[in-house]
């Protein structure tokens, strides 16, 4: 029952809720929980390759944190005076850290979304009601990688003819780039004609579209979704009650913690971490089954 086998509608609903929750919470405890859950999910989906994504996001957080005090001079604790006479405050720096963390967390959610909700799952959701839109979406997803492969083929062909890519003077490189672009454009137009003829021959649009995959919801998935719905409801009640609000400028202040805050934070964390826990449980179950062989 790994998350990859969930119904596409459930996947889409979870990521939509995760993104909204990440944006609306401001309190550091909630943001740290959201960032940890997003990182855990990406690690469970991509493995060690996820650390490369994390490495690209660290400069983003630092840049947002350091730049924010340059444009926002509010704050009671002055760290330094800028050359143009504006104060560089600690509160503005903390507000920048909060904003950068939120942005990085959203990008982590999007990375997991791209890994889990592939083009086939999105086309499953919209293919029945809008097959034309599903087809366009699928072709757009394939456009960039296909053009990259074809560009490498074109570059190799010109290298074989002695017309190396990116060589010679500026004028020669411009003419060579025009030749390569012309070859890629002609290839793309010819491919579109072949695709259109193939779709017409197969009767696309002449009847009700068929779906290649059938997603069935079992009792375990239904129970997991019900538990997640309950956790989400508790978290939303706490967030609506102001448990996740925070103020950074002119002074840093948070509402005092109480029972609602604790319940909301725990529910918030468990809801966002549930997919990672499901994936971990499925991997543990698989390893136990292998050990019995």
Q: How would you describe the overall organization of this protein?
A:
The chain has 293 residues and is an all-alpha fold. The chain is built from nine helices and two strands; from the N terminus they run αααββαααααα. It has helices spanning 8-24, 28-46, 50-71, 90-116, 119-127, 131-160, 170-201, 219-240, 259-291; strands spanning 78-81, 87-89. The protein has a two-stranded antiparallel ribbon with strand order 1-2. Helix 1 (8-24) runs antiparallel to helix 4 (90-116) and helix 3 (50-71) runs antiparallel to helix 4. It is globular.
Write the layout of secondary structure elements.
Elements: H1 8-24, H2 28-46, H3 50-71, E1 78-81, E2 87-89, H4 90-116, H5 119-127, H6 131-160, H7 170-201, H8 219-240, H9 259-291
Antiparallel strand pairs: 1-2
Helix pairs in contact: 1-4, 2-4, 2-9, 3-4, 5-6, 6-7, 8-9
């Amino acid at each position: 029952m790994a998350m990859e086998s969930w119904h596409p509608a459930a996947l889409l609903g979870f990521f939509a809720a995760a993104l909204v929750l990440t944006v609306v919470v401001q309190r550091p405890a909630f943001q740290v929980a959201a960032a940890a859950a997003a990182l855990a999910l990406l690690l469970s989906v991509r493995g060690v390759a996820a650390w490369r994504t994390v490495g690209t996001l660290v400069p983003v957080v630092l840049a947002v944190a350091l730049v924010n005090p340059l444009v926002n001079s509010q704050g009671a604790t002055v760290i330094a005076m800028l050359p143009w006479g504006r104060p560089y405050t600690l509160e503005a720096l903390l507000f920048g850290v909060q904003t950068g963390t939120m942005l990085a967390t959203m990008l982590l959610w999007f990375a997991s979304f791209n890994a889990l909700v592939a083009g086939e799952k999105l086309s499953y959701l919209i293919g029945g009601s809008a097959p034309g839109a599903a087809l366009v979406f699928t072709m757009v997803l394939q456009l960039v990688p296909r053009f990259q492969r074809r560009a490498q083929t074109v570059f190799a062909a010109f290298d074989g003819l002695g017309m190396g890519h990116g060589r010679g003077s500026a004028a020669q490189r411009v003419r060579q780039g025009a030749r390569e672009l012309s070859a890629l454009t002609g290839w793309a137009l010819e491919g579109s004609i072949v695709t259109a003829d193939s779709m017409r021959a197969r009767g696309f649009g002449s009847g009700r579209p068929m779906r290649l995959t059938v997603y069935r919801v079992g009792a375990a998935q239904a129970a997991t979704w019900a538990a997640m719905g309950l956790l989400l409801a508790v978290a939303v009640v706490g967030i609506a009650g102001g448990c996740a609000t925070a103020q950074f400028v002119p002074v840093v202040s948070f509402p005092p913690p109480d029972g609602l805050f604790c319940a909301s934070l725990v529910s918030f964390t468990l809801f966002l971490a549930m997919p990672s826990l499901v994936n971990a449980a499925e991997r543990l179950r698989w390893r136990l089954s292998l050990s019995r062989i």
